[in-house]
Amino acid sequence: MSTLCAAFQATAAIDPDAIAVRTPGNTRTLTWREYATQVRAVATGLAALGVRRGDTVALMMSNRVDFYPIDVGALHLGATSFSVYNTLPASGIRFVLDNARAKIVFCEAQYVDRIRESGADVERIIVVDGTPEGTVPLAELTTMDTGGFDFEGTWRAVEADDVATLIYTSGTTGTPKGVESTHAALLFEARAVHEVLPVEYGDRITSFMPSAHIADRMTALYFQLVFGTQITVVADPSLIAAALPDCRPTVWGAVPRVWEKLRVAVELGIEREPDDTRRAALRWALDVGARRVEILRAGREVPADLAAEHAKAEQAVLGPLREKLGFGELKWAVSGAAPIPPATLAFFTALGLRVSEIWGMSELTCIASATPADPARLGTVGRILPGMEMRVADDGELLVRGPLVMKGYRGEPAKTAEVLSPDGWLSTGDVVTVDEEGYLSVVDRKKELIINASGKNMSPANIENAVKAASSLVAGVVAIGDARPYNTALVVLDPEALHGRGFGDESVLAQVAEAIATANKELSRVEQIKRFKILPVFWEPGADELTLTMKLRRKPIGEKYAEDIEALYAEPMAKDVHEPVSAA
């Protein structure tokens, strides 16, 4: 199979009456037979509207069942189908639609006015859940047929090098760029990941991240076309924890912030357990798991007495706890898109989950390296995927070449040439180290390294992760220190972990101060945070401080909080600036 269309047709024929896509509780389901029928209807309708191979179709909607036959239907025409972040302002919508040269936009009724306000030059707006004036209802599109449309011949004419999708980068340093991914690259990705993290027909996964994010698009949509997974769509990502026991995923993935929130939820659940015996048992089991993981991380053999104690904890507490969380049948899970504190991975490993850290980027089709779920490998992102080449430049930047490398940035040949050499090497922008077995550890983004007043290079992500690992109360940290005599930090709290306390609560301040002191013990002297300030705000994806994929926007943060940053270095020290304390 050389295209995603061929993969879908083969997969859909395996068990046509099996459920392919569903919502929690099976309030809506889509069998493979219904899926295939709707794909044909969407393709036929789009053809009637004049969509042809090489055209672009945009989708702007929440995670919903309708998304799948629409996206795959467009693919069967040879069109490029891509998703727009729902939270984009009108100006952002105009940029991506114009850059993509989108002819058609599928959307929910709630987004019609914003799309029109954008002024983007699109031919049709097709609405999946209503009939706003001047739009085409999805039900009407799927009945359009001008006659003579050769569905079989059309999808078979699609070629491996055709651009299947566009992924717009999150724009931490400027205007987003549209990464072009081909059918061949997406198929290669699925098969290469499968060699490290196997996926089978009937495996279950949730779709809850935005479909404009390559992580959701790859692991939900494209894995499904190739392997035949069952997808549970969760429209509201804040409800993912509640949806997991319903879906019971066998494979799963999330960004670090979601893993951190799940950890907070588990810890809070234990803290609020009303039965003293049950609460003590939960704490004991997690402690046993943590002690076992620490020994495995050190590369030592687990003593027989601890192994026996762990077996009891597994049977009596850990197994039932995973079942309650919805992870009772989980084969593997991944964390990616941003660095995750090894302590967070260790927590879930102690719980008995097989969580691997992955590394990749949109320009590499998604996942480019993955590590087995081995406690001894926590903190690494594994080896480069089979079939790919890598080398490390003199300045530590990772360069990658192979089938996963993007075709280019849509309409941006100069920007493409900046990162993609004539002989196919992609400059990733990530500084890495590589051990003797080829395992990669990401130091930081090349452009984000802190160089202090003494010329010392440091990774802000390493500093920030040490703090986040020390306390679930800390949702975000920004390490400051470029051209400064010492490091400081802006801290943002997790609203759920506040437990109703205010920003100025003495216990909150004490907890953050202790967390930073604990982190400092894990950092070199020059990396340590000398002062910090708690910001009385919560940061949301897509706002000034975070990209839609929850990466820090360091330059805008520096500009927006310039006065707060200066206060961190002021003498005498301001009242709302604090120093870490000795950890208890």
What would you say this structure looks like, in words?
Helix 8 (183-196) crosses helix 9. This protein is globular. It has 584 residues and is of the alpha/beta class. Strand 5, helix 5 and strand 6 (124-127) form a beta-alpha-beta unit. Helix content is 37%, strand content 20%. It has 3 domains: 4-188, Rossmann fold (3-Layer(aba) Sandwich); 257-447, Rossmann fold (3-Layer(aba) Sandwich), CATH 3.40.50; 449-568, GMP Synthetase, Chain A, domain 3. It is built from 19 helices and 26 strands. A 5-stranded parallel beta sheet has the order 4-3-5-6-7. The protein has a 5-stranded mixed beta sheet with strand order 12-13-14-15-16. It has a 4-stranded mixed beta sheet with strand order 2-1-11-10, with helices on both faces. Residues 8-409 form the AMP-dependent synthetase/ligase domain. This is Long-chain fatty acid--CoA ligase.
Topology:
Elements: H1 4-12, E1 19-22, E2 29-31, H2 32-48, E3 56-60, H3 67-75, E4 80-83, H4 90-100, E5 102-107, H5 112-118, E6 124-127, E7 136-137, H6 138-141, H7 151-156, E8 163-168, E9 178-182, H8 183-196, E10 204-207, H9 214-227, E11 230-233, H10 240-247, E12 251-254, H11 256-271, H12 276-297, H13 304-325, E13 332-335, H14 342-351, E14 355-361, E15 366-370, E16 383-384, E17 389-392, E18 397-401, E19 408-409, H15 413-419, E20 426-434, E21 440-445, E22 450-451, E23 457-458, H16 460-470, E24 474-480, E25 487-493, H17 506-522, E26 529-534, H18 554-560, H19 562-568
Parallel strand pairs: 1-11, 3-4, 3-5, 5-6, 6-7, 10-11, 12-13, 13-14, 25-26
Antiparallel strand pairs: 1-2, 8-9, 9-19, 14-15, 15-16, 17-18, 18-20, 20-21, 22-23, 24-25
